[in-house]
Amino acid sequence: MKLSEGGNAVFAGTTVLSAAQAISADSQSTLVIEGSDGALASLTAEGLVQNLGTTKLTRGMLMMTTSGSSLNQVMASDSTIGVAAGTYSIASFLGSNNTLLATDLEHLAKANVSAASNDLTVAASGGSNDQFSNANE
Fold it and tell me: Where are the beta strands (DSSP E) in the chain?
């Protein structure tokens, strides 16, 4: 999916994008993942994500599965950004009650968040964390 010249894409419900370049957005574009009061919106990007614009999440989840994926400005509330194996970059992750979730902790080389809200939670999924028997590993 390619967004340019101020384009907007809005996702609700559950969506999977599978392509070598799953999401490409210029600095004027906005990616929106928006759930409702009773339902979480979920977007899984199976391919490279490069959003130079804004990502907005409200009761949503963005799962990035390809190393080298990056987001510029993330504005979110009650939401999660998931990362798998490899390296990921988020310039700013602002808002409230948000989580950065590692789903393949053993193979996650780096998840860099340059600026974040004070209440950002960093977590590992249960299956990812269970591979370690204790904190020393």
Answer: 2-3, 8-11, 14-25, 30-34, 41-58, 60-64, 69-77, 80-83, 86-96, 99-102, 108-116, 121-124
Structure tokens at 85: 């194996």
Instruction: Write down the pTM of the prediction.
Output: 0.90
**Cα dihedral angle (64, 67, 69, 74), rounded to 10 degrees?**
50
- Return d(Cα 71, Cα 55) in angstroms, integer: 7
pLDDT of the chain, 137 residues: tens digit per residue: 999 998 999 999 999 999 999 999 999 999 999 998 889 999 999 999 999 999 999 999 999 999 999 999 999 999 999 999 999 999 999 999 999 999 998 899 999 999 998 889 998 886 655 555 555 54
Q: Coil, helix or strand for 105? A: helix
- As a residue count, the chain comes to 137
Q: Which residues contact 50 (CB under 8 A, 6 or more apart)?
A: 21, 23, 24, 25, 69, 70
Contact 90, 113 (CB under 8 A): yes
